Amino acid sequence: MQLYSRFVRVELTGENPYSPQSDPIPVRNGLNLAKWIKRKPSPAIKPHHKVARATFAAKFLSKIRIWRRIVFSDENKFNLYGPDGFQYYWHDVRNDHELFSKRASGEGSVMVWAGMNYFGKTEIAFLEGRQNSECNTKTLDGYLTPFLEYLRENHGISRPIFQQDNASIHESRFTKAHIEALGIRKLKWPAKSPDLNPIENVWGQLAWSVYEGGWQFDSKEELKAQITRSWNNIKQNNLRHLVEGIPTRMAHVVLKNGGPIDK
């Protein structure tokens, strides 16, 4: 509730403890998102991670417009019985009850990949089997490349920038060579930084929609169909607000000397 209260105070009074000249839209974005509490353990951030995160945040703190050029990406898992065994779910703090009843774990799940940007989002990709570098590059060819072309043709983003985390299949020589051969500019992303990636918030919104009312699924096909419907229903304004709120995240990271932030 501390995060919620702070955003309420900022929204009602116009006071911004971090930057008196900041745009009010990120603040409203924080207010809208603060009703959700994300229960996901933060990754272990060591001192060298904090230094890298703080350096990254300070570098991009004033580069407001660059975020519109970046395509943020990530993988996520959806289970038949609920969001990731209750280690990862969102709870509406306006309601006292929590929505999901628990089945036995291991009853089936699907893995997805997607990307989002200020101007839109990719199609959602369903990943089959164990993923390696070759699988990853095929996903990028099938889903990222068409979206980058869409940004170039429809929004004048001649040099879009691609973001992905530092998973081994993302950082392999095979993947790096493939991305370079495609002429895709890649953002150097600090390790242990899911809290800086706005697509994490999109996953939360998507999970809420997929499992709304405690819904559970009898088959992977049924789950995939609902994920696709929910993904297609994510509003463009949500994506824009998240991207507009990134400078606020950067300010929080700088103030916390690279430590984890609420987002």
Automatic annotation (TrEMBL):
GO terms for molecular function: nucleic acid binding. Gene3D superfamilies: Ribonuclease H-like superfamily/Ribonuclease H (3.30.420.10). Residues 69-223 form the Tc1-like transposase DDE domain. This is Unnamed protein product. It comes from Phytophthora fragariaefolia.
